[in-house]
Amino acid sequence: xxxxxxxxxxxxxETASGKKSFGAVVPDLQGCLTQGEDLSxxxxxxxxxxxxxxxxxxxxxxxxxxxxxxxxxSDYPAGSFVNVIEFDxxxxxxxxxxxxxxxxxxxxxxxxxxxxxxxxxQNWFNGTRQPSPWVERLxxxxxxxxx
Length: 147
Known about the structure:
Layout: E1 4-14, E2 20-25, E3 33-36, H1 39-54, E4 81-87, H2 89-92, H3 96-102, H4 107-114, H5 118-126, H6 133-146
Antiparallel strand pairs: 1-2, 1-4, 2-3
């Protein structure tokens, strides 16, 4: 599988409670948007939003990325900018979180299935930590065989 590089518009935003945050929009994927507590968080979640949008599509039907120079920021607030985000289908679609979600399992259910600490599985789901690749393959196999 190839890697894809989509331009993403990041803009300063606020949560419903008025807390500062960052929004992210992927212009090439209609309706693909997300938000994070800060820029780093928004960059993490936009990869998830791209994966969710592309899930189920044959890779040959993935929309082509646009040229960054052609993206218009005039409708976005001051401080908005474009950054190119790498999406690796091989990496995204072969993670513990993705496999568990496809199986309909939440963090608690996944932890119970694996006999793993809740906090460890929570870290896998939110991307702050990942098991080593060989362990991840075994975990994914266990999740898939249990459903």
